[in-house]
UniProtKB/TrEMBL annotation, chain A:
Organism: Escallonia rubra
One cellular-component annotation, GO: mitochondrion
HAMAP family: Cys_desulf_IscS (MF_00331)
Enzyme class: transferase
Name by which UniProt lists this protein: cysteine desulfurase
Cofactor(s) named in the record: pyridoxal 5'-phosphate
GO biological process: [2Fe-2S] cluster assembly
A Pfam family assignment: Aminotran_5
Source species taxonomy: Eukaryota, Viridiplantae, Streptophyta, Embryophyta, Tracheophyta
EC annotation from Swiss-Prot or TrEMBL: 2.8.1.7
Cross-referenced InterPro entries: Aminotrans_V_dom, Cys_deSase_IscS, Cysteine_dSase, PyrdxlP-dep_Trfase, PyrdxlP-dep_Trfase_major, PyrdxlP-dep_Trfase_small
Automatic annotation (TrEMBL), chain B:
Transmembrane segments: none
Protein's UniProt name: Complex 1 LYR protein domain-containing protein
Pfam families documented for this protein: Complex1_LYR (PF05347)
Superkingdom of origin: Eukaryota
GO aspect biological process, one term: iron-sulfur cluster assembly
InterPro entries: Complex1_LYR_dom, Complex1_LYR_LYRM4
Occurrences of domain Complex 1 LYR protein (ranges): 10-67
Amino acid sequence: MATKLMTSILRRTSLKPSPVRPLSTAAAAAVSPLPTAEPQEDPTGISIKGVKISGRPLYLDMQATSPVDPRVLDAMLPFYLSRYGNPHSRTHLYGWESDEAVESARSQVASLINASPKEIVFTSGATECNNISVKGVMHFYKDKKRHVITTQTEHKCVLDSCRHLQQEGFDITYLPVRPDGLVDLDTLRSAIRPDTGLISIMAVNNEIGVIQPMEEIGEICKEFKIPFHTDAAQALGKIPIDVDKWNVSLMSLSGHKVYGPKGVGALYMRRRPRIRVEPQMNGGGQERGIRSGTVPTPLVVGMGAACELAMKEMEYDEERIKGLQERLLNGIRAKLDGVVVNGSVERRYAGNLNLSFAYVEGESLLMGLKEVAVSSGSACTSASLEPSYVLRALGVDEDMAHTSIRFGIGRFTTEEEIDRAIELTVKQVVKLREMSPLYEMVKEGIDIKKIQWSQH
Amino acid sequence: MAIPAPSRSEILALFRSLLRTARQYTDYNVREYTKRRTSDAFRRNSHISDPAAAAAAFSDGKSQLEVARRQAVVYSLYTPKVKSIMEIHT
């Protein structure tokens, strides 16, 4: 009752703008002559970058980021309002309570991956964790170990760190993957050298969603005694993770993929046998010297709450998301032909569906799907026009790689959203195919690959 | 002394409060999720026979209700001016 009154008063007082009198200097200042790049929002719709949509799009891009769960926000807010202390302040209540919160978040994250809280280091995100793992490990062991094995489908931050190491004189092997996206274990075995210092293979791929055979790779690493690093940013809270079963030495975790806040991540570093890294952030020695800098208490508490939630909700979410994925795939396949799923269908995380539509151009498909927030390729590479390197590594043809769309389904996705997405996608694909002369030729039975294109 | 198991009317009252709070959310996705999760959780827990487990589930539900109430207020303070596409098209 009191909260209702309070919110109605707040809404009335805070949102009314003060009236601007005409011909006053304030009025002159209020008219902005320059066109702003900010979205113009009015009750009839949003207009941004020359596109007008009638409402906020439905969100199907869970691999790029996920919305913050209200329960996570509830856990974080007190640390922005009254409990704002620095966890490293040892002399007063603010520091003590903040430190307590950080330690409890640490144990929440650790219990989701079956690790000890002492093995978790908080960072600013999975990219930083990947940098610490790849560059930190190799710099520490640089006298004896000069070789790193990774795959061609890794996240850009791992590949870029490896390229940086290559410039410093290390050798890197980029393992090819099979057409279904999985790493071939015999290829991995044959690539191992006596001076291999690290094997880095991501658990769940962000673009195609395939789950690598982690236990088998862990076995190989144990046999050859090579540290195993995995980027588990997309896997956390979605598939069961056990650092002992997988035999990982280092694992990168990200907060904003498990319905937590952006700007926080955690690095798991095994204590037995101990893996040592050279820190990338030097300073006051926080986080056991691995990552100096004030630990951001609200973000870390948010990540801890998100991990605890993920542990409780994993089974429920998985069941639901699997059902939604089937609904989406069957719905699209029922109305369209020439739909290809990129990546293995069996060993796949259900919430990631990467489809290629034949005889359709990718950019125009995305432009027509403005009411659905999806992505083609990953968010990190969407600025450039070249097709995704992950799809190229799978051996997908250039034209099919260009038309790939990644649908990301998550905890908050509803059946109605899936149905609407199916409707919009089918409509757009049919429209584009009708305009396409290539599709006409295919319908007549001409094999496109055998055409001799003549020069004019 | 063990906490007594909740009575049927208490459980129903909690269920109705959670659904009523869910309806207050201005965000389409969170509203639908809260409604759905509440119904599924109560349906799943309806088979609990052990009174201690039932009391634990009930108190968990009550704390979730507090969280939901607070967040409904926060979400309503920052509602975007434009609604989700799902709420506009009929």
